[in-house]
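Recall that a protein's primary structure is simply its ordered list of amino acids. Everything else, from secondary elements to tertiary packing, is in principle encoded there. The following example makes that idea concrete.
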Amino acid sequence: MSIHSLDKIFKPESMAIIGASEKEGSIGFSLVKNVGEAGYQRKIFPVNPRHKFIQGLPAYSSIRKIGEPVDLAVVAVPIAKTPSVVKECVKAGVGGVIIISAGGKEIGAKGKQFEAQIKKEAAK
């Protein structure tokens, strides 16, 4: 991996927040709020199939519905859904993914399976 490809993670021109939420106190709510309050001046795409708008921003039902390039996806969904979300990110051509989720290898064999599935999808 070159330094240039790390720019998609450390200097993204666009960011999808998968698991974005209107529910105060949730991780998805805090991510959208904090990114906005931190002064991020580029495109933010909240992704949640249950909302048309999240915190005043147009929301998308999936990463593939955005219709334009996404450099970084921040994924805040339950670990069981993460492998399919990463698969969608790969199909959409997302440059980098950050996963915020508990329940990986720290919970044992089932968590290790989720992590292996995530790695398999990301390798594609």
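Residues 109-123 form the longest helix (15 residues). Helices lie at 3-10, 27-37, 82-92, 109-123.
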